[in-house]
Every structure is written in C-alpha cells, then in structure tokens.
Amino acid sequence: MQRRLLLVLVFVWLLPTSVWAVDPDKRLTQYAHVAWRMQDGAINSAPNAIVQTPDGYIWIGTSDGVLQFDGVRFVQWTPGRGQRLPSSQALRFKTTRDGSVWITGFGTLSRWKNHTLTNYASGAATEYYAVDEDGEQRIWATRYFARDGSPLCQVLETGLRCDAPLKGTTLQARVLLAERDGTLWIGGDTGVLRWSQGTQTAYRPAGLASSAGIPGVSALAASPNGTLWVGFRKPGPGLGLQRIADGRWQSFDTPTFHGSSLLVGSLFVDRDGVLWVGTLSRGLYRVHGDVVDHFDRANGLSDDAVYDLTQDREGSIWVVTARGVDRFADAPVTSVSVADGLCMEDVTSLLASRDGSIWVGGNGTLTRFHDGGVTCFRTGRELPGYHVESLFEDHAGQLWVGIDQGLWVYEHGRFQPITRPDKGPIGLVTAIDEDTDQSIWIAVFGPPPVLMRIDGLVVRQEFGDPATPRRVAADPTGGLWLGLFNGDLAHFRDGQTTVHRFKHPQGALVRQLLSLPDGSILAATTYGLIGWFEGKASTLSQKNGLPCEQVYSMAFDHRGDLWLYMSCALGVLKKADLQAWKQNPDAAVAIRTLGGLDGVQPVNAGFHGAATSLDGRLWFSSGALQFVDPEGVGRNRIPPPVYIEQVIADGTAYPSLAALRLPPLTHNLEIDYVGLSFVVPQKVRFRYRLDGRDDTWQEPVDRRQAFYNDLRPGTYRFHVVASNNDGVWNEDGASVEIVIAPAWYQTQAFLTFMIALAGIAAWLTYRLRLRQVARALNVRFNERLDERTRVARDLHDTLLQTVQGSKMVADSALDRPDDAAALARALQQVSAWLAQAGHEGRAAVNALRLSTTERNDLAEAFCRAIDDCRRQRTIDGDLTVTGDPKEMHPVVRDEIYRIGYEAIRNACMHSRGSRLDVGLDYGRNLTLRIADDGVGMEPAVADSGKDGRFGLLGMRERAGRIGASLSVNSVPDKGTVVVVSVPGQAIFRDTRTPFAGKLWSRLAGTGETPSRRRHRG
User: Where are the alpha helices (DSSP H) in 316-360?
Assistant: First the structure.
C-alpha cells in the first residue's frame, strides 16, 4: 500500500501544473465554491488548519482534535493502538516528502508516519512550533518564547536539537519558511530573519526603529520569482501585506487594493504562482500579477476570518475560516454574472464576433466583452431601446441588433435604424442571417409572422404564409433554411418554400438552426435534435441516446464536436457519432454530459442561444451567461486513491487490514470504502467485486458501501476501484482478503466424516436390502418347502396309509388262496379302501386349492372327521365345544384342523379303542383335546413317533408354525390324550359379532346353551 501511495505522489508531482491547478484567469466568483459551516453541523468545533495528507485525505485541525474528510464525511481522526496527541488543539499542519504529517499546537509537536505517532515534548506550554522542510529533507522548527537554547531547532529522530546560532537578535520566532536551497525565513515579533548555514540577515519595514518593535509576522509565502510575501497581524504603514524583493521591503498597492490595510492571517502561493491572502476580518484575496480579486462572506465564504490555506493534488484551493471550511475548484462550465462585469442579470441574446468580442443582450443593456474589458450600452444613453432580442454580425463586421419592435445596425459608435417604407415598425426580430448574395434576412414574430429581406438598410421584400419562420439560417449552397412555428423545417429559395415535415408532438418549437457547409441543416427543438440530410429527415431523441428531449441551443467546437444545451444537461456529441447518425437516423450515440455539479445553470424562460468565440470557447445563454472551454473539459487526469475503511460483519466493525479473519457463523457484510477525489466528490464512481461470490464487476455506482448477505465459510477477496469526476479510473484500487472461519460442523474434517458416514450408511442400507431380498426369497423358498412337506404329510396321513392298509389286506388274502370267502372279503375291503384312497387323494388336491376350513367352523369340520372315523370302524365319538366360536386367520384354522384331524385319524386307526372324545374350548386361548381309551403307545413313540412315519412329526411341525403347544400323553392299555393350545391374543380377531353357522342351528335344536355344546356321533 505504501509503495502504491508513493507512486501516486510521484505521478502527481510530475504532472504539468496547468493540468492540476485552478485557472488564474477566472474570477473567484466563477469557481465552483462549496462551504461546510459549523452552523450547518458539518464541523462540530472551530477549525484552525488544513492539509491534504500523503494518502489523499483532507485533515482539518480544530480546537477539539483532528477531523478526516473524504469528500463526503467528516470523521474524528484517532491514531489508534493506544496513541494520542498531547493536546486536543491542532493549530498547524505540515507534510514532508518522507510521507510524514507534522501536527503543531501550543507547546506540542507531533509526527504521524507509517501509522505511528511520535510526540516531541518541549516542556513549556507557551511555546508555539512552526515546522518546514528544506531541500535536503531536513526538518526545522521554530519556538516562540524559547527559554532554553535557540528559537530555531532541527528535528531529529531522537528529538529536537536547538543549538542553531542566531546572533544578535531577540526575535521571538513565530512562523517559518524553508526554501529548497536550505535558506530559512523566520518571522517573529520584530521582523523577518533570513538564515542560511549560519549566515543571517534581518529585515524590518523601512522607517521604523529596530527598538520600536512591530506587530508580529503572521505568515510567510515565497513566489517562484523569488519574492517573499510577508503578512502582519495588524494593518498600518509598512505592515499588512508586504513583500521582500531584491533584499528590500516593498509594499503592495494597486489603484483598487491597498495591501497595508489588511490584517493577514495566512498566505499561500499555489502551483501557478498565484498568491492567496487570508485576512482576519475581510475574507479572501487572490493576487495574480497586478490583478487582485476578492471573495468574502457576502459572496458565500463561511466567514471573513481566514486562518489557513492549502491546495490539494487536483488543484482545488481549501480555505479554513473561523466558522467552517471552503473549497474553490475549477468547474468545466463557468458562469458570468454581474459580479464578473456583465451589465445585466438576464440574457436575451448572444453573439461571438470575429474580432474576439462577446456581445450579450439583455433588458435595458447590451454588454460587450473585449480585450479583457467590458463596455455597457444602456437604455436612455447609447442603446435606442430596451429589449435586445437578436444579434448578428455580417460579412463586413457590422453589428445588427433587434431591439424592441425594430432593427438597428451598429457602426462607428452609433446605432442606425432599418426602415420599412410605408408600413410602420418592423416588429419583433427573432432571427437574423445573411445569404450567399450578402442580403440580410430576418424572421419577424409579427403580428403577423413574416420573413423579410433587407438591402441598403431598407426592407425590400416580405414573405408571409406558408413561410412563417421562427428561426432563419442561410444555406451555404443557396437559399435559406427556416425553422417554422409548428416545429417543421422549410427551405426557401427564389420566393418558393419547400416544407419538410417531421413527426413531433403538438406545440413543438424550433429554437435554433445551424446550417452545415454541405447544405444540410440541424435544428434544436423541443422534441430533440432534428436534421435534413440529402433529402432525408432525421430525429435524434432519447431513443438514440439523448439524456432528455428538449434541446435549447447548440454549437460546434474546433474539433467538430457538437455541444447541445438541453433541459437536463450540457452534452457533447462527438463528430464520429454525429456522422453515424446522419447516415443512419436510428443509430445509437454516446453523449457525454455535464450537469449542475459541473457548473451548468438550470434553464429558465427567455432566450437560449449559443456561439463559438475566437479563442475556442463555447458560450451559452440559458437566461444566464455561461461558457465552456472544450480543451479544459476532462482535464482532471489524476486517478483517485482508493481505500477500504472498515468491514462491518454482523454489526461488528473491523478496521481495514490486508487480511481479515471473521468468526464462524458470520453471514452479513458491509464494506465501507472511499475514493479521494475532491473536485466533484458526488461524481466519483466505484466498481467492486467479491471473489468467491461475484462472477463480474458490479456496475459503477456512487454508493460508498457494498453489502453481502448469507455468506458461507471460506476465503473471499474484495476489490474496489474508483474514477474521478472526469471518468479517470484508478484500476489498482484497493482490496482486502476476508476469511470467514467455519463452525465445527462446517469444517472440512466434519464434512469428510459426514461423507464417510453417509457412505457407510449407504453401504449398510445396501447390505440390509440384500438381506431383506434374501430373506424374502428364503421365505418364498421355505413356503414352497413347507407346502411340499404339508403335501407329503397329507399323502402319508391319508393316501399312503390307505394304500398300505390295502396292501396288508391283499397280502393276508394271498397267504390263504384256498379260502374263497376270505379272499372275497379281502377284495371287498381292498375295493373299499381304494375308493377311500381316491377320496383322500381328491381331498388332498382340494386342500392345495382351498382352505379346509373356509367357513370358519372347526366344530363342523371335526364332526365330519369323527363321522369318517366311525364309517371305518365301530367307535363312539363325541365333540364338545366350550365358549363362543371366534374368528381367526384361515391359515391358523387350517393348521389346527390338520393337527386335530391327524389325531382323530390316528386314534381311529391305531388305538383299537371303543371311544373317542374331542373337546374344542374358545376361552382366553383356543384349546383342542382329543382322547381315546385304546391301547396307547410307548413313551418314546409319543415323543418322536415311529421311524418312517410322519404323523406325530407333522403335528408338532404344524403346532410350531402357529405358535401352539402340543402335548401327547399316553398310558399303555388306557388310551392317549392329545392337547393343542394356541394363544388367543395371537390368533383371534378383535370382533364382538357373535359367530353364526350351521352348528348354531343344530345346537339350537338340542336345547344346549352356546357356552357348552355337545355333538354325539
């Protein structure tokens, strides 16, 4: 940053002074003047001193510290880092080439350099220090009422060395001026002392005794020609404003200015060698050669007591007064008022003549600016009328003037009227021009409107409708161009008028005509700029790029650019753009504009004209008189220094650093920045970009803050560049790196962990899904296996056993082939069993397709099983049902039925008993009990069944599938009891509807209660 600042300072130092200084040929009243007054609240304490610091800021020393100004805001300056000035009152500033800023007060001397404040303590509160730098970069200081050592001191890094030998003088040093050759000028209470390498010379005003004493010297300033200007705090002979030239005191007086009468507070010589004098009671004076200009409170100065003066790098002059701060700067557009010599307030006509004169007409007055002087022609004296409406200079240099209802020619110092034989007054002349035949043509407002030709000071011809012009301009190729009252154009030649019509709103006006050498015409109108080029009408309006529609006047500069005075601005249409528009009426053009901040006066009613003077200036009338020098517009080539002042993150302000680290969870940023250009601070423009957020530069804005919301953790870099009032950009700008730290859950490690965790979760989900798919396949496979097992059981329990029994009967009969009766019985038995086998096979097939207990009636199913058993052998069978039947899942019913059916069939075929009891209990649980009084079975068989037989094994498997318990208790020769118990909570559906079926109807006929029913076989 310091290297960039040094480059800026070197660049500024090498610029030509004519580029960056105020124009000394302008009057003070013609500068752009801005005042910041205490009473307006801009400054909160009385100012004393002013300087532009090496970084580009303006510092104002006040009675309550130092203010820093960026062109928009005054901010209290503090050194920071626990540093502070020894006194709150800053009386003087001085900047030196090493980048230091020296601050002096009563008994204090401080230096600010590289963000470090060094205080040099004197130990005497009454001592006042003045500081300056010589050509060898030595720093010198003077002390007022020094009690120890010399009043002249050299400032070293270690402190003050006050041993400079001032011989034979009692001078109490107050002010100091160091020249490049090492010469020091010291001003004090008794005069001025010149000191150089130990040699000293004292200067006192002539005629005063050395012992008499004089009022103290208050200011010193050196001109480039070697003149030393001296200011005194009191007026009087030999005092006030004096100068030392050629080793002698000289007063400075002119016929209108007496320097000795001034009470001088400050002196300053600007870059053009012009002397500025700040007085303590009469405001500000400027001395340029022998010309003295004055500006005081009556002209707008913040106060008549001027304490300090300086000039910034852009050439503006800064003035500190007792009540505020003022700035004087060149404006591109300069106004000329009565204070500048204009003879009237309101301008009604304008002409730039070939001898360099500027003629300005007004009400009751005609003004001529020529050779640096002003001549006024006034009504009742030189002027033969009151209202000067129009001005024109013919080929012979004669001045034609339309006054009131007549027309005059001014030559040889008098006005000669133009006559209209036998028709009375001419009327109000709105425009005058001369054709190629040197005839004078005038447009007369009327009544009625008419076009007249004048020859020999007499009106020779008059033309009325349709030629009713408001403006007239000669066509260089012959004839006249007319601006008509209805907003159209017309060409008049040899008494014939050709009207060229344009699309325009009602009430349109042609305000000015400007003919071109090729015979084409331009017209300033209320609906834009219009033209007729080679038989083609063209209109330039806001659609093409004009900032506003109403064009009042226009003029060409020496480069061929067209200047347009519009209702909103003064614009410049470049020659190339003008040619492009002439060739293509729809072409877009670029208009550079100057506005109120550039000195352009607002448009008011009245005459609006334009003229180009011999020196290249363009003059415009908008009710006021203004001029612009095209060569001076855009001359501020100094790019503004750019600084980032602070970063406000979520309401907390952080000073600007090269890199800034912000805490986690920071979302919102406000970045404050400045561009230090003071000519027109309001026209400073900024572009900015936040790397990491913005893809491109933001469009130029005048706002001095950038806002960003919802920023994520990361590293960003903010860049900002600025342009001055003339569009010169500082492309280096300023930048700051901003790091927003992540919260713990926003760190890279946490993100990596979460990604790994998500990967693991995805892998586990994948594995779980694979298991689920495998389990589903296994379930389907198991279901198929179970079904095959069930079919096997059913075949074993029914078909295979029947077939096996049939085989046993057949084998028994074959053992006795001679017993025909037994053989017949055996065949009958085999036939019956084979029929039963067919029945059982069909039942098994049906069991594969339908639920055996579709109707939810286990009691009826068991009744059928008992009936089947009784048909095979003689046995008594009873079924007992306890409780209300409850609905359950068909699969559960099937399994219970299969278990019970197998137990009933086993008892029927193998128990050889005479009785079979079946009990079905619908209680809290479902209990099925099958008991017989047969031979029983061995305990081992009851536990696991016989080898090769699957009856008991199938029963246990079915019970396990539905979560039932199965017990088989058998006692030899006493029978077998099979008990199946299924938890009701697992198999019963939640229903309160009574179960209705055939069994209920059958039981109703027996008179048994629903709580206990009995079926006898």
Answer: none
450-455 and 440-444 as β-strands: parallel, antiparallel, unpaired?
A: antiparallel
Residues 884 and 966 in one domain: yes
Residue 253 is given by DSSP the state E
Determine contact, residues 192/186, Cβ cutoff 8 Å.
Answer: yes
Q: 74 and 61 in contact (C-beta within 8 Å)? A: no
DSSP annotation of 397? -
Q: Which residue has the tokens 């503006």?
A: 316
Give percent above pLDDT 70 in the chain.
89
User: Which of 740, 772, 795 is where one domain is finished?
Assistant: 740
Return d(Cα 175, Cα 187) in angstroms, integer: 5
Q: Which of 433, 430, 429 is nearest to 420 (CA)?
A: 429
Residues linked to residue 734 through DSSP beta bridges, in sequence order: 720
Both 846 and 859 in one domain: the answer is: no
Q: Where are the beta strands (DSSP E) in 541-641?
A: 551-556, 562-566, 570-573, 591-594, 609-612, 618-621, 625-628
Of 740, 759, 790, the residue at which a domain comes to its end is 740
Runs of H (alpha helix) within 114-159: none
- CA R_g for the chain: 59
d(CA 288, CA 270): 10
d(CA 210, CA 902): 151
Residue 586 has φ and ψ, to the nearest 5°, of: -95, 5
Structural domain range at position 729: 642-740
pLDDT in the model for residue 8: 37
Domain with residue 666: its CATH number is: 2.60.40.10
The residues near 23 (Cβ < 8 Å, ≥ 6 apart) are 330, 632
Are residues 875 and 1012 located together in one domain of the fold?
Answer: yes
Distance between CA atoms of residues 153 and 167, nearest Å: 14
Going along 197-302, which residue ranges are E strands?
Answer: 199-203, 217-222, 228-232, 241-245, 248-251, 253-254, 257-258, 264-269, 275-279, 284-288, 291-295
pLDDT digits (tens, 9 = 90+) for 869-922: 887 778 888 899 998 888 887 778 888 888 888 888 888 888 888 899 999 999
| pLDDT band, very low/low/confident/very high, at 19 (cuts 50, 70, 90) | very low
Q: Other CB atoms closer than 10 Å to residue 237's CB: what's the count?
A: 11
**3-class SS shares of the chain: helix, strand, coil, % to 5:** 20, 40, 40
Q: Following DSSP, what letter does each residue of 468-487 receive, concatenated? A: -EEEEEE-TTSSEEEEETTS
Tell me what the pLDDT averaged over the chain comes to. Answer: 85
Sign of torsion, CA 1004 1008 1011 1016?
negative
Q: DSSP states of 797-862 as a string?
A: IIIIHHHHHHHHHHHHHHT-TT-HHHHHHHHHHHHHHHHHHHHHHHHHHHHHHS-TTTTS-HHHHH
The two three-digit tokens of residue 316, written as one number: 């503006």
1000 and 859 assigned to the same domain: yes
